[in-house]
Amino acid sequence: MIEDPRVLRYYEQGGELTRLREGRGRLEFWRTRDVLLRTLPPAPAKVLDVGGGTGVHAAWLAAAGYDVELIDPVPLHVEEAAALPGVQARLGDARDLPVPDGAADAALLLGPLYHLHERADRVRALSEARRAVRPGGLVASAFISRYAALHDSVRLGTLPREGRAEVEYRTVETGEIVSPREDGFRGFSHIPEEIVAEFTEAGLPRPSVYGLEGAFWLYGDVDDWLDDDGRRELLLDAARRLECEPSLLGVSGHLLAVSVT
């Protein structure tokens, strides 16, 4: 369960209802969907959406014919997700999944590792995902890039505020993310090498690591691109062509790692 009350308050305020559905967050959503559609086993495979929030990904997975079970530690999220057509939802912790061994064809962790500050907890969550999928099944996990907070502070203009630069530089050094707001986001961010090491420690094969947004999420006019169907497809194609370029992974706001057991 979520142990930091500040993180729980953040989610209970309902921010996840819109984060990936509006504004530049749509780029993360569409790129996550793009990578998963190319890597998941075909429907009607059983998919565990661990830490799936209000079901923003569970909704399209179910609509595509997947058998989706969402597990999340926030009661509000489970209530919202359970109302989606074709989605089962229940409370649970990524570190102790309430499912038998080999219960699914794929396990998605598209948020839990953002909030597990201790490496042992992150490895445990990945180990649980490995346990929950059948041999040959897929485990995919999302990560916040180590440099995203500093990039975002420059983009938003908050870096000049008193003490902000020190906080962001500490994030670059330690991975710990601290929102400028007292009731805001708290999390952990990764560099690509850490992602690979944690997958390996969890007993998973070396993952493929994808940069989801590339540098495009930092562009001032990214909303205009996403609002226009034609330009959006060009933007998604450009991001797809650069998604595995090692020299560009760190600039992406989010990373997605995919491993087949």
Question: Any overview of this molecule?
Answer:
With 261 residues, this protein is α/β, with parallel strands linked by helices. Helices cover 39% and strands 21% of the residues. The chain has ten helices and nine strands. It has helices spanning 5-12, 25-39, 56-63, 75-82, 119-132, 148-156, 164-174, 192-201, 222-227, 229-242; strands at 46-50, 67-72, 87-91, 104-109, 133-145, 176-178, 186-190, 208-211, 254-260. The longest helix has 15 residues, at 25-39. The two termini are 26 Å apart. The model has no long low-confidence stretch (mean pLDDT 93).
Helix content: 25-40%
Oligomeric description of these chains: single chain
Q: How would you spell out the order of helices and strands? A: HHEHEHEEHEHHEEHEHHE
The low-confidence runs, each spanning 5 or more residues with pLDDT under 50, are none
Number of helices: 10
Give short descriptive properties of this protein:
261 residues, alpha/beta, 9-stranded mixed β-sheet, 10 helices, 21% strand, globular
